[in-house]
Amino acid sequence: MSPKKLETTTLTQKVMRDYYAGCREAKAQGRKVAWSTVIMPTEILVAADVEVLFPENHSATCGTKGLGPALSELAEAAGLSQETCSYVRCDLGVRMGGHSPWGGLPAPDIVFCATASCSTVTKWFEDLTRHFGCELAVVDMPYNFSGSITPHSIDYIVAQFEESIRRIERITGRPFDRDRFTEVMKLSREAHEYWRKCLELGATKPSPITTTDILVNMGPIVCLRGTQAAVDVYRSLYAELSERVASGYVAAGEERFRLFWDNIPFWFALGSLSRRLGEHGAAIVGATYLYHWVREVDPADPLRSMAREYSTAVTMNQSVAHKIDKLCGLISLYQADGLVIHSNRSCKPDALGALDLQRAVERRCGVPVLILEGDHTDSRAVSDAAVQTRIEAYIEALEQKKYGHLRVTTHEIHASR
Amino acid sequence: MIATATTPDARTALLDACARALDHPGACLREWKQRHPAAHVVGYFPTYVPTELIYACGALPTGLWGGSIAVSRANAYIQQFTCSIVRSTTEYALHGAFDQLDAVLFPPICDSAKLVASIWALNFSERFMVDMVTLPERLDSDASVAYLAAELRRVGATLAQKLGVTIDDGALACAIDRCNRLRASQQAFCSRRATLEATMPLAHAAAVLKAGTLMHADDYLPLLDAFLAELTSDARSRRSKIPVVVSGLACQLPHPDFLALFDEAGFAVVGDDLLLGMCGGVAVATGGDPYLALARAFTQGPPLATRHHDTIHRHEFILDQWQRGAARGVVFLVPKFCEPEWFDLRYLKAEMEKRGIPNLVLDFDEDPTGFGPVLTRLEAFAEILM
Ligand code: SF4
Ligand code: SF4
Question: Is B118 near chain A, with CB under 8 Å?
Fold first, then answer.
């Protein structure tokens, strides 16, 4: 069966096009534009009618177009070490005049940075304020070392939300509209709920959607929480996936091996990696990355619920023990035969702990784990040959584990002739 | 000819004690435990962990500095794209070097440190308690002070429970006083660097400050104070040397032989923000709520690569040191794979260049060999500045 196009993708693409056009228009009309980290509760900004853009999202898009190395080189020539996160290097590369698929982002009037994803973003956003001469609002979300958030951490984050609101009032010259905020929070909750339900359906065996298709439809949950457009996209996706599950639709073809992915994807090799795995009947059916956006926000208690959820939902702000528990739960939910961990040198907060994760998952879930060295956007740091060799060895381990023997693929028969 | 600015006795006593603390930390710890059989030892990852909490528990705080160990077993826990101190300390831990400790406290200074703390908690909790003093990343908000005071209470209570003691306000006040005196003496030591250069090059000054994180303040302070009391001003000392400011990050120091190259290349280090983490910071106020006072003092400390402040910037601090010391250049010492410092470097360099201040960037790890090219670069820099 040839794969069916996901109809929601057309809607998502339109919504995202409109969103970027809207941001440009706002800038042209002199309305305020903010840049933000993706783990910031931008519901606050949406309620204040400030357009928000996300440099991480922009860098990932540059990555999907294979621009990582060229942009990184520009950033390195401008003095930023290759030892820093390649998202930052992509962004700086574009600011230094490099090519961007979107022609860059409209300059910000203010930048917002929440530290739940990492401390790297603070350094990145400090650089943005120096570059654009704009204000920086840092929302510090302390690391949840014990696996759960402390009450004083919640108080601290809430106090900073309140500070941010006062800053926004000053910048926009308008009082913050709490009623509008409640409406935005309701929309945010709805979008989040649909997103979670879509992922639950996505975990069905066999998979009704490829991970690449989910990634393609992630834009609104990352960039447009708190808007009707995001709710529309995920309501549509949920309906489409429900139909697919009901009709027994299989998205990834043969699923001899269902694999779960940890850490940010190789953005520059999304298609080639799934083709490579597909040759062996292996499919990536889910990823930790998607779950960073699974949160339960509460419009009746917006600031406290966002403090808790934004701080704890991402694995980067959590203990390794917590991440292990989360991954073991997901591997069982997806009935995965294996875990592939991207040991991403550009994202230390998500990559460190990989070796403990590997040991724990092999022991607790009894599935083989592959660690691939890599980088999410700078493909210079990824050896294609090494990836190929490791995948082949891994597939053998999966074969032995699941079927108790080695399978000779048609691909190998042709190759040996 | 460089004049001697103190009697050899005070200087030798200080340097010998420091060298012993640094070269034989395990043996020193054992001796200390023999002298204080009922007391505990609490390790902390450099830096910014408020040792006042540890002293208030009647325990000895000891810095975990890593070192020049060949990393092999730690490769099964931590990837190679991380800085050397997180890898070497883990290697030492795997060899049992910290098994004498009752607890280890980590600060969340950077992404690597946060995760390494978590990896230690997962793997070493049966050997010693592992906890984090989750310091705020922002130093510019009142909310940070309230948050940190609550976090210090939490850590203090957890630690005390683990050690089977209680922290009362009296014990904490006493610990605050002790650490205030320690900080004041170390800062006096730093601020007299120009004089010190006559007798004590950067490598030795770093050793003195570093030993202050390993020895009990009651053993260390008398030696340091005796040295300072006898230190006399000697204006001749610096004349033949080239004054520079050294900038870096206190949680990882280059090997002593690396630091010694500054002297060899003819530099006098007249200012730095390298050793700040070991002795920077303001005195903690006494009298009120001790946890609030500790928290407030932390947020009023000097600018750091790993903390954010909206209006106080690190380049201003370096420029101030440069001006005060009439320095001719700045040397940046950047640990390999240290993201916060590589980020700051780009901006700090630009600020120096904007003002025409010559600067040199040297990266390093804890490898004790291969310093030849470093000396060549320092000598070439010295020639430019002469
Ligand atoms: S270090 Fe990781 S979490 Fe932080 S900005 Fe880079 S990719 Fe994102
Ligand atoms: S040297 Fe840098 S990367 Fe290493 S622990 Fe210190 S701040 Fe973190």
Answer: yes
CA distance A188 to chain B (A): 27
Report field, pTM of the whole predicted structure over 0.90: yes
Chain segment A81-116, per-residue pLDDT in tens: 999 999 999 999 999 999 999 889 999 999 999 999
Interchain pair A140, B144: CB under 8 A: yes
Domain ranges of chain B: 25-171
Q: Give the model's pLDDT for residue A55.
A: 97
In three-state secondary structure terms, A364 is helix
Q: Rounded CA gap, A128 and B37, in Å? A: 54
Task: Determine whether the interchain pair A123/B349 forms a contact, defined as Cβ–Cβ distance below 8 Å.
Answer: no
Structural domains present in chain A:
7-403 (3.40.50.11900)
pLDDT in tens, B59-118: 999 999 888 899 999 999 999 999 999 999 999 999 999 999 999 999 999 999 999 999
Give residue A121 CA to ligand 2 midpoint distance, Å: 16
CA distances from B121 to B41, B90, B150 (A): 17, 12, 22
Per DSSP, the residues of A30-70 read T--EEEE-TTS-THHHHHTT-EEE-HHHHHHHHHHTT-HHH
Q: Looking at the domain B25-171, which fold is it?
A: Rossmann fold (3.40.50)
Residue nearest to atom 2 of ligand 1 (CA): A347
Spell out the alpha helix ranges (H) of A83-227.
Answer: 86-95, 120-132, 151-172, 178-202, 211-216, 219-223
- Looking at all shown ligands, the one closest to residue B46's CA atom is 2
Among A126, A142, A320, the residue with its CB nearest the CB of B118 is A320
Please tell me the distance from the alpha carbon of residue B347 to that of residue A124, in angstroms, as a whole number.
11
The four Cα atoms A65, A66, A68, A70 give a dihedral, to 10 degrees, of -110
Six token digits for residue B242 = 């080239």
